[in-house]
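#lab-general

N.A. 3:47 PM
ok so I finally got the sequence cleaned up, no stray characters, all 107 residues accounted for. can someone with queue access submit it? mine expired

B.Y. 3:52 PM
send it over

N.A. 3:53 PM
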Amino acid sequence: MPIFVMLSVLSNEGSETLHTRPDRIGLVDEELKVMGCRVIDQYALLGQYDFLTIVEARDAETVAHLSVDLSSRGGVHIQTLPAIPLDLFIGKLKSHEQLGRGKVKTD
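B.Y. 4:20 PM
back already:
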């Protein structure tokens, strides 16, 4: 199944909710299952984003729908990115479908 990275920033409302109900994080994980998604891992972050969530979903449309649904509540803003497993990426790099193979860049 495709993997996606969700970078989340809490709104003031979301921060209040989480502060008073820290168990809310686990409840959201359960809601993702209803949409056919699975949380692989989740981290609290320091810096520009508050959370990093790694999600498995059947397709990009499903995880986009998930992002919109979660964001529509007003508690969080989400940036979602597709994640490509390195073995698949390396396989593509080794394939014959290359635009610049064999060309050496000279500057």
